[in-house]
Amino acid sequence: MKSNSLAAVVRGVVPLLVTIGRSMPVLTAVWLLLPLLLGALLVPLFASQKQLIDLFVSGAGAGVGSWSERAREALTPLALMLGAALLRVIVTSAQNVTDSHFRGKASMLVQSLVQQSAVRAPLEKMDDPVYYDRLQRARAVAGEDLFGVLQNAFSALRLATELLGLLAVASAAGPGIALLLAAVFAFSFTIRLEADMVKRRLNRDLTRSGRESDYLRETIVRPETIRDMRIAGSIPYLTDKFAGGMLRSLVLRGNANRREIRRGIASSAAQIAGLFGALVWMASRMADGFMTAGTIIVVFQAMRGAYGISSRAAFPVGKMYIQSAKIVDLIEFLREAKQETGDPSRPALATAGKDDGEGGAETPVIRAATAAIGRTGRIDLERVSYKYAGAASETLRDIRLTLHPGETVALVGDNGAGKSTLVKLLLGLYRPTGGRILWDGVDYRELEPEELRGRVSALFQDFVRYETTLRDNVTFGRLEAGANDESLRRALSAASIDSPERLAGGLDGRVGQLTEGGRSMSGGEWQRLAIARAAFRESQLLVLDEPTAALDPQRESELYRSFRELAKGRTVLFVSHRLGWARFADRIVVLQAGAIAEEGTHDALMAAGGEYASMFRAQAEWYRG
Ligand SMILES: Nc1ncnc2c1ncn2[C@@H]1O[C@H](COP(=O)(O)OP(=O)(O)OP(=O)(O)O)[C@@H](O)[C@H]1O
């Protein structure tokens, strides 16, 4: 067993319990204390048993003569024994109820912590495969493994407190007996745990290699395989391979079983020797009049109880060893996320310039900036550049661009030119790695992220399909304001959905296949819903990244007709490869390999005969051809 495994269990489980305890201190305290109480109750239970045995078996009740007198004398220990036994039953039931409640709530809490960490993380993080992978692992551990980890931690705690109670009982015969019991327990437990771990690892390895055996077992007897193998003369090779694999796993399992049996024998021998030694010693003390029969019997019981624990505890502790690495991973993920994003109530937009570890607390600068935002809605990009983490070169270089209030700008360019990246910077989802973006002269870094979020809306290429009601799909665009049916219908109509009844049986009709009776939708219908969602936000800047990619020509022209409605009173930036759309923009910006190649109206760019003109002619030619 690796020496750092126990450290990993402690490093994982303790901070996990601290994290949970901070959010639900009472429930955690009760969850931890009930097993302690159960262990402590063993002491009066055994003490009263000892008293009763001494009273009736050895007649040790000094000065007590008749049976009736002894019976009277026995009332107190009897009441104590019954009381302790009854209390243990009650505490056990309370503990079972608390345990399942605690585990359910704790699992919910940790899952929500992981979710909060993910939604608050700067969006650039999602582009980092290492982070994304860790997030997925943390999500899986919080969702699937945590329940089991807490169950094992609870079993281990319960057995540990019971062991402490039994040690306290054994110490009635003297500290030497308690020490002997502790030493035999430690020996038995360690070797049983080791045997358990060896079997677990073997099972894990055999599950992997077993997949190949399963595959061969299935494949070898298929007619097409037999035909193929006969022609190739490979029958003996595959059957030998299968038999060899099976034999190997049999040998390994046999070795592990024999090892477990040897460990079991060693453990039992140590336990019997311990028990025998203790009995001999106690009997000799009894002969000297220093020990009663009651003490010997209860200590004997305590020792047997502790030995039982040594084999029962191997299972939950062994499982925790296996799970500890995942829990350490989860805890580190949560810790790092907290350090990076601070206060959970803070936003998901990139909080550039607020990496002060304070989670972006509101400062006078930010307040003043927020008050200034939105007076006119002019957006300036000043020498903006952007480089993805781990990328060899910059995706955007030296972008200088102004979006005037109410203007419609088309952003065009080849695949990979950097259009979507520019969109994310404009929306405040990414922070520029060079230069700055200003809204009415105020640097994005000084703006309150919620304020900025309130002024922008977007439709992304990879728009989300919310498998809920039609109404939710639209109102998710602006949850804070109450939505009446009329405004919802207006937004739907701007996305060329004139009849929600026809689409999904009404505003409250369900869409998607998640629930029974949900209307399954085509890609284009989902896209129109996403457009309606973006339209529903009363934003100053509307960004549409390929808004028509999934639409058929009929829907596309319908959307074009409602586009003016969509653009009314706001600045619109849209990205499209269909240059027919760009023709109607106030201005066209052509991006080429991360830099602005040209800029102007359709007519001006066509007259200039540059990149845009050649792209437009190529597309027009293609349609004509
Ligand atoms: N997460 C990322 N990490 C590294 N490079 C990236 C990442 N995302 C995009 N890129 C690279 O940045 C460049 C610009 O990508 P972007 O998606 O902004 O281009 P685009 O103009 O929108 O392309 P398209 O027209 O195909 O949608 C591409 O070369 C792309 O490979």
UniProtKB/TrEMBL annotation:
InterPro entries: AAA+_ATPase (IPR003593), ABC1_TM_sf (IPR036640), ABC_transporter-like_ATP-bd (IPR003439), ABC_transporter-like_CS (IPR017871), P-loop_NTPase (IPR027417), Type_1_exporter (IPR039421). Residues 342-361 are annotated as: Disordered. Keywords: ATP-binding, Membrane, Nucleotide-binding, Transmembrane, Transmembrane helix. Residues 379-618 form the ABC transporter domain. The chain crosses the membrane at residues 26-47, 163-191, 265-284. One of its GO terms (cellular component) is plasma membrane. Its main location: membrane. Pfam families: ABC_tran. It is a multi-pass membrane protein. It comes from the Bacteria. It is found in: Cell membrane. The keyword ATP-binding applies. The keyword Nucleotide-binding applies. GO terms for molecular function: ATP binding; ATP hydrolysis activity; ATPase-coupled lipid transmembrane transporter activity. This is ABC transporter ATP-binding protein.
